[in-house]
Amino acid sequence: MRQAVRMRVVLAAWLAALLPLAQAHADDDAVVVTAPRFEGDARRLPASVTVLDAKDIAASPARTLPELLSEEVGINTRDLFGNNAAAAAVDMRGFGSTASQNTLILLDGKPLNDFDLSGVQWSSIPLSNIERIEILRGTGAVLQGDGATMGVINIVSRSPLKRGRAFEMTARAASYSTFEAQLYGAATNNTLGANAALYGFYSDGYRANNRNEQANATANLRWALGEGALDLQFGTDRQRLRLPGGRLVRPSTGLDQYASDPRGTNTPQDYSHRDGNRLGATLSQRFGEAEFVLGLDYRGKDLDTFALIGGFSQYRADDLNRFSVAPRLRVAFAAAGLQHRLSVGVDWRRWHYDSSRSDQAANVGRPTNEVSVRQTVAAAYLEDQIDLSAATRLTLGWRSARAKYNAGDTVDSGAPGCLFCAAAPAASETQHQYAWEVGLRHAIDAAWSVYGRAGRSYRFVNAEEIYEFNALFAPEFQILNPQHALTYEAGLEWRSRKLSTRVALFQTDVTDEIHLDPFTSGVGNRNLPPSRRRGVELEARWQPTAAWQLGAAYAYTNARFREGVLPGGAFAIGTNIDIAGKRVPLVPEHKLNLSAIWNWDARTQLIGQLATVSSQYMDNDEPNTGTKIPAYTLVDLKLARAYPWGRLAFIVSNLFDENYYSYAARSAFTPDLYSVYPLPGRTVGVTAELRAN
User: Fold this and answer.
1) How crowded is the C-beta side of 383, counted as CA atoms within 13 Å?
2) pTM here?
3) Cβ atoms of residues 138 and 144 within 8 Å
4) N or C terminus: fewer CB in 10 A for the chain?
C-alpha cells in the first residue's frame, strides 16, 4: 500500500510541475511507422503509439532491447539471469508468464515469436543495429494476426540505402568478465545499397553456471526499382548458454539459498545450445495510388537443452522451421465524398516442429521419443482507413484465419534412455478464428487529439503447449481451444514543441486463455477461466531548456480472473482451488519510470533512469496464497561524450546495488516452497564506438 501511495504522490508532483509550463505550439511533423504493414503516420492511428529512433536508443543506459523497452509505459520485463537478455520476456499490459505469446515482436515487419516456448532471441538484435522501434499498444490483430493480443513491437533494422559509405566498430567491457563487440559496414549508390554486421558477446554472468557466448551475423541488400524496391535480408545467430536455475526458499524449514548464496546454482550441468538462421525477401512497388508488397520469409532454429530434474536427466534436440508468404495491396481512392485507404492481404505460414528426446546427448541418436507437430495457418484480412474530415479518421478492419494441426509421436522402447516411456496417439485438428477492430481518432486542434477503439484478437496454441500428460500420466496431444480477447481503449494526447503528455485507459477481457495449470495432476496446459486486464497509462516528456530533457511514465495494471476453479489434485496444495477475483501472477500493479538527460555541453550527456516496480504474485500462484515477489527500485546512469571519431560511454546499472529478482515460481505441491532467480547487483561498463565515413 505504501508503495502504491508513494508512486501516486511522485507522479502527481511530476505532472503538476510539467503541465503549467506547457507551450501551445504543436509539432506537425509526421511520425512514420511500418508495423501496420504499410508506411503511415503514427499520429493518425487510433492507438497508443511510441516510436523510438536511433537518438533515443543512444540516449539510454539500457544494454539490451528488453531493458530499453522496459523504460516505456505499459511494458514490464522479466529476466531470469541478467546476462544479455538470454532468458528475458517482455510483457505488455499484464499477461504474466505467457507474455511472450501475447505480444507480437516483429523484425522489419516479420514475426520473431516462435512456435514453442523458448521466447524471442533478444540477444540476436544488438541495440547498435537498430534504426527505430515502433510500439503499438493493444492493437495489431487485424493486420498482423495470431499473438497480437496486447499489441505489436516492430524493430526496424538500419537501412542499407543511406547514402555513402560507413564503417563502425563498437566494443564494450563490463562486470562479470563481460565483453561485447560489433563490426558494421555499409555502402550504397543511387540504386543499390548493402550493409552487414558481425556481433560477438561473452560473459561469465552473475550466477554460477551462467556463462553466455553469443555470435550473430546479418546482411541486408536493397535495390531501388523505380517506384519500388527489392529487399533481401540474411541473419544467423549462435548461442551457448549455461543455466543456473533458481535458488530455493522454504521458510518453514529454514531453507534460504537466496539469502545464503544468491549466486550459486543447483543445476551445474544444465545448458542450452541454440543455432538460428533467417532469410527474407520483400518486393514493393507503387502503381499510381496503389502499393503492392510481397513478403517471403524463412526462419530456422536448432535448440539443444539438457536438464537434471528430480534426479532424472532430460536431453532434447528440437528443430523448428517456419515458412511464410505475405502478399498485400493498399489502394487510395475517394468514395461518397470521403478519402479511403484500403489495405487487403493474405498471410500463409507453415511451422515444422520436431523434437528428439532422450536422457543424454550421447543417446539422442536413438531417442526415446520423436515428437513432430505441423501447423499451417492461412488468413485473409482487410482494413479501411476513412478520412471523415481533415481532423478525423475512422479505421475498420477484419481478419479471418484457419489453423490446421497434425501431430505425431513415436517411441523406441529399447532406446537407452527409455524408462516407462510411451507414445502419444496421433492428433489432427482444424481451428478457425477471427479478429476485428473499429477505431476513431480526432484532432481537436493543433495540440490536442483523442482516440477510441474496440477490437477482438486471438491466439492459437503452440507446439510445446499441446504435448502433455493425461490424468494417467501418459503422453497425449491436447490441442486446446484458441484463446480470444476483446479490448476497449480510449486515449487523450497533447503535444507542443517542448512538452507532450498522454493518457490511455484500456480493458481486455480474455476467454480460453492458454496457460499451464500447475495444480491439476496430469493436465498440463489448459484453457483457463475468463480473466480481465484493466489499466491506466500516463506519460509526459518535457524539454524545459536546450540542456535538459525529462520524462515520466506510470502504468496501473489490474489483471484478475473473473471466475473459475482449478481442480487441483491429491499431490497439489489443494483441490477445487477458487481463483475468482484473484490476481494474475507475474503482473505488478504499479510501475513508474522517471528519466533525465542533461546535455552538459554540445558533446557530453549525463543520462539517468529510475524504474520502480510494485510487488507481484509468483508464477504458479493463481490462488494468491504464497509469498510475493518484493517491490524493487533500480537506478541506471550513463555518461557519454562524442568525439570526431566516435563516442565513449560509461554505464552504471543498478547504481544502489539493489538485491532483487523479477521472476520466481511457487511450488504447486509444497505450500511455502518457492524458487527465485536473483539478478545482478551494481554493474559497470565502458563502451567505445568508432565511426568512419
Assistant:
1) 30
2) 0.93
3) no
4) N
Q: In 231-362, which residue ranges form alpha helices assigned H by DSSP?
A: 257-260
CA distance 609 to 596: 7
Query: DSSP assignment, residue 298?
Result: E
What span, in angstroms and rounded, lies between the C-alpha atoms of 122 and 86?
Answer: 7
Residues 345-374: tens digit of each pLDDT: 999 999 999 999 999 998 888 999 999 999
Q: Residue holding cell 511533423?
A: 29
Q: What is the DSSP letter of 389?
A: S
Q: Which three cell numbers stand for residue 634?
A: 533500480
Q: Is residue 238 packed enough to be buried (19+ CB in 10 Å), middle (13-18) or exposed (0-12)?
A: middle
Burial readout 298-320 (b: 16 or more C-beta within 10 A, e: otherwise) = ebbbebbbbbeeeeebbbbbbeb
What is the distance between the alpha carbons of residues 428 and 116, in angstroms, rounded to a whole number? 18
DSSP state of 2: H
Determine the Cα angle at 264 with ends 258 and 668, to 5°: 55
How far apart CA 389 and CA 396 sit, in angstroms, is 16
Rounded to an integer, what distance in angstroms lies between the CA atom of residue 347 and that of residue 341?
A: 20
CB 84 within 8 A of CB 203: yes
Grid cell listed for 686:
565502458
> Residues 567-596, buried b or exposed e (16+ Cβ, 10 A)?
ebbeebbeeebebeebbbbbbbbbbbbbbe
How many Cβ atoms from other residues are within 10 Å of residue 74's Cβ?
26
Q: How far apart are CA 174 and CA 82, in angstroms?
A: 13
What phi and psi, each to the nearest 5 degrees, are found at residue 270?
A: -75, 145
Contact 167, 118 (CB under 8 A): no
Distance CA 117, CA 169 (A): 34
Q: Which residues contact 391 (CB under 8 A, 6 or more apart)?
A: 442, 443, 444
Is the Cβ–Cβ distance between 179 and 173 less than 8 Å?
Answer: yes
- Contact between 422 and 479 under an 8 Å Cβ cutoff? The reply is no
Tell me, letter by letter, the H, E, C secondary structure of 427-478: EEEEEEEEEEEEEEEEECCCCEEEEEEEEEEEECCCHHHHEEECCCCCEEEC
**Mean pLDDT across the chain:** 91
Grade residue 29 by pLDDT with cuts at 50, 70 and 90. Answer: low
pLDDT class of 521 with cuts at 50, 70, 90:
low
Q: 249: which residues sit within 8 A by CB, 6+ positions away? A: 255, 256, 257, 258, 259, 627, 673, 674, 675, 676
SS3 155: strand
Give me the phi and psi of 34, to 5 degrees please.
Answer: -120, -5
What is the per-residue pLDDT for 163?
63
Find the angle CA(133)-CA(136)-CA(142) to the nearest 5 degrees. Answer: 125
